[in-house]
Design goal:
- By secondary structure, the protein is an alpha+beta fold.
- It has 2 domains: 14-95, no CATH class; 98-190, no CATH class.
- It has 3 helices and 11 strands, in the order ββββββααβββββα.
- Helix 1 crosses helix 3.
- The longest helix has 15 residues, at 97-111.
- The chain is elongated and about 55 Å long.
- 31% of the residues are buried.
């Protein structure tokens, strides 16, 4: 089996629909992304959401996995032909992850645990504020790429109104800038939500 080579250019990521198979983690491989220590790759034996006969990597923010919902998405761990390389261009989003993501962000805003979002709201004062993916932060005063806007929320007098949280349907978990990357407070809250889901 060839080692996975992560590539930097991605076409639009695909989405999975329908029931997902039960995870069958391989005894051999889980590893941390060398450039993103918050990301973990877990080798899953076939059948997987990608193939009935080839293994896949479950990409997660958790160092261990027990539930499919905590998987961000799937990457091939091997290809059908020896000359083809598997990489991030083959990323397939796990539809069970997105609801957990939005739950975590809403809780982070409600609890006021992310200084970056709090400061952005203070600077905005009044109006709608975008919650951006940190992998491609727009220039000050600019609106980010729709693929990188996770959600929007109303700000009044410098305060975030969490009850107005609206998911952005165009947001992509994985783009040419890589997989999802969150601000520190939101990332910590997501980690807690995912860990709770593993119990």
């Amino acid at each position: 089996m060839q080692a996975l080579r992560l590539v930097s250019l991605l076409p639009r990521s695909r989405h999975l629909h329908g029931a997902l198979p039960r995870l069958r983690l391989s005894s051999s491989a889980s590893f941390t992304d060398p450039t993103r220590p918050d990301l973990h790759y877990h080798l899953v034996d076939p059948p997987t959401p990608l193939s009935s006969s080839l293994p896949a990597y479950a990409l997660s923010f958790l160092p261990t996995l027990a539930r499919t919902a905590t998987v961000i998405g799937w990457l091939p761990a091997a290809t059908a032909t020896s000359d083809a390389e598997a990489g991030l261009n083959d990323f397939v989003e796990n539809p069970e992850f997105r609801p957990l993501l939005h739950t975590a962000i809403k809780q982070a805003l409600l609890e006021g645990v992310d200084d970056i979002q709090i400061n952005a709201a203070t600077q905005l004062g009044n109006g709608w504020m975008h919650i951006h993916d940190d992998r491609n932060v727009p220039a000050l005063g600019r609106i980010g790429d729709p693929d990188d806007i996770i959600a929007t929320v109303l700000v009044q007098e410098g305060k975030i109104m969490p009850e107005t949280y609206q998911e952005m349907p165009s947001y992509r978990i994985c783009t040419s800038d890589g997989p999802i990357q969150l601000t520190s407070g939101v990332a910590r809250k997501l980690q807690a939500v995912l860990q709770e889901g593993e119990k």
